[in-house]
Amino acid sequence: MTATASGTVLEVGATGESSHRGALEDKGHVVLGCGGPDGKPCPLVEGKGCSLVDSAMGVVFRLDLDDSYNREILKCYREELSRDIPIQVIVKAGDEELYADDLAGTVVLTEDSRSALEDFSDQVALVDMARQALSDLAGPPAGRRNGNREEVDGISFEWLR
Asked: Distance between CA 117 and CA 81 in Å, rounded?
């Protein structure tokens, strides 16, 4: 990958020193922060959706998995996000075995491991590029537009809506 990546990363539950925000922003990512439930219900768990999750092309999840509500939040992330969006979960040593079922389908790191940040950044950038390519393919070709008619290279198209 290039030195500058792209794509929006949602960082859940990390603050201050524990945050990857600076390193991810240095790689060119937009980083959104969610402090976790903090006494309020998580909109995902409540079935209300979340605009932060909707815009994420990668998630760094750092909520204590000893709390069953936090495990429920992680489950909602795994169900809500498409499988191509990487979820990196940072856990205490030993939690990767204790909560293996809850962590299925995620990249698991212990708190002292930061080496996988580069790979995660590259995965997010790939998701961003793929979404952009699909968006470009889904739209009509560039050309002169007249209502729902468009002319490209002398060929007239009529777009049905």
From this structure: 20
